[in-house]
Amino acid sequence: MVLLLDLQEPLGARKKIYQEVMEVIEASEDAAFDVFSRNIIDESLNNMHYLHAALSETLRLYPVAPIDNKVCFSDDILPGGYIVRKGDIVFYQPYAMGRMECLWGEDAEIFRPERWLDDDGIFQPQSPYKFSAFQAGPRICVGKEVAYRQMKTFAAVLLRFFKFKLGDEKKVVHYKTSTTLLVDGGLYLEALHR
Question: Angle at the Cα of 59 (from 171 to 166), degrees rounded to 5?
Fold first, then answer.
């Protein structure tokens, strides 16, 4: 899960997610795994605004596909005035786009889930042309909503029952660009029971 890999984010975000999960899922503090997981229903998932924002923020900074391409089906002119011909391949980089100050502001390189929330703490989606982790237009991922539901479900359960920390707190994390974004040398975590 992407969210759990970015353990360099502020501890406050993890605490806010945990608090939201515990408030939204109506299960007691000592509820067993099966009882807790049965209480995760559509309504509770829809009310996990901060978790949704944190997942989006993680995908903004660490998209699964850091670089992607499209093949032009016809001659066209891109918004910047560039001419493309039928059959040309156009690359775009969600990894770089997620860090562009012109799109995300001066704090573009900072993990800040609050950028996705309105004044009432309700999740506000961004244009898929700005946040391209799930692509946009006719090629937008049909499984986007299912992916968010799965990420929220797994994150809620994992964060309810475990605390995570880096296996080596001093290790500097480096990424390898490939078809998917990989952690160079892996990333070892310790999962501790709550």
Answer: 25
